[in-house]
User: Fold this.
Amino acid sequence: MNVIEVAVYALVLTKASLPFTCAPHGADGASCSNGYSATVDGDKNIVFQDGVAIEKMPDGGLKFSNGINSYWGSMGWIQFSNGMSVRRDNRGVFRFNNGMACRSLPGDTVDCQPEASD
Assistant:
């Protein structure tokens, strides 16, 4: 697990439109300023504090224990069944269909901010 994964999944779960940051917390965790935090379970799934677990499927898809799943959409976007979608641009920024963007900062911190779409 890395902090950018936690930030991206937290944004998918919340459909956030307000800024937040995430940073490492302990050996196997990350905490975000929006109240979300996650750790890794014994099966290497990311588990959020509310019990939602994210499993990486063999085909590369993601399965959320709350029923959200993902699939590859057009133009390289990952589509989520809750209406969110995300793509990683050539600078490593994760851009969302709701105008948010998450980027890694020094110190393993991730910053997610509203940003105008391309």
Remarks:
- The chain has one helix and twelve strands.
- Residues 3-114 form one domain.
